Amino acid sequence: MTTKLEIKDKTAPIDSIKISPFRKNIRKTTPHKHNSYFEIIFLTQGSGTHTTDTQKFDIVPPIVFTVRKEQIHFWNIETEPSGYVLIIKKQYIDNCLDKEIKQLLAKLSAYPCLYPNAQSLEPLFEILNQEYQENGYSQKPVVDGLLKAILGKLLLSAKAEKASESNKASDFQHFKELLNQENQLTNKVAHYAKLLHTTPQNLNAICRKEANQSATEIISEHIISEAKRLLLYTDLTVNEISHKLDFKDNSHFTKYFKRHTEITPNAFRKELL
Is residue 147 within 8 Å of residue 131, measured between CB atoms? Predict the structure, then answer.
């Protein structure tokens, strides 16, 4: 049996744009869709999750969610929310003569979740809400101008987030390059974090995101790979290799190597030579 999906319309027939405070009593909603408008939800308080189609997002304010028309979404809110809901009807987009607003809306629709700067965004929502409550859409130039400012601010957030992601990928690549360039390897995450001008915690987070491994795991893989290379292709003793790889003594290196390979360095060398 097919479940009939609820279709909601939160605007009056004459409204082409509507803004209102986010209802504080909303907790759980059933999956539903809006077939005639684009929705922007800006939350400054609250926790829980928001699901759009198959994507579930944690509510970590300040946060903005966008919902395109025909998208299915629902809420599971745990603590009292606060913020604004901005609705832009299809007729507004169709009739809008400002091409830049149309372009901004089209670009923004690609981002279902953003983490904006609340200090610069919240006043714009407050002013737009006040203007709408007092005059509705009668002051079109004012409403259009505020809408454009909000859309512009949100897209700046999107660009900043993209740049941040790019920087993280760049830091990860630099980390891998450092492992290859270091004449004296070390298994200390803090050493590489310092060279990258970041913290060990942040380096770990970057590695988790980019490689699904901790920084320690990546360093260990590299050290074991280098140890195997030195054991196979050089005449260095195990003691010399342990010092070259920044281990305090041969015993520490042997335990480390065996923990990762289940064989001692000497046994590995004899087995393959």
Answer: no
Question: pLDDT by residue (tens digit) across 222-246?
Answer: 999 989 989 988 999 999 999 999 9
Residue 225: count other Cβ atoms within 10 Å of its Cβ. Answer: 11
Mean pLDDT estimate for the chain = 88
Whether 190 and 109 share a structural domain:
no
- Domain encompassing residue 199: 160-273
CATH number of residue 82's parent domain = 2.60.120.280
User: Within this chain, do residues 145 and 184 fall inside the same structural domain, yes or no?
Assistant: no
DSSP state of 240: H
Q: Which residues of the chain have pLDDT under 70?
A: 1-15, 161, 163-169, 182-184, 273
- CATH at 209: 1.10.10.60
Residues 129 and 186 in one domain: no
Residues 30 and 147 in one domain: yes
β-bridge pairing 6-7 and 32-33: parallel
pLDDT at 12: 47
Q: In terms of DSSP H, where are the helices of 109-214?
A: 118-135, 140-181, 189-195, 200-211
Dihedral, CA atoms, 23, 27, 32, 35, nearest 10 degrees?
A: 20
- The H or E element that residue 196 is part of is none
Q: What is the pLDDT of residues 155-194, one digit of tens each?
A: 998 877 676 666 666 788 889 888 887 566 888 999 999 9
How far apart, in whole angstroms, are the C-alpha atoms of residue 230 and residue 233? Answer: 5
Tokens of 158: 């999107």
* Total domain count, the chain: 2
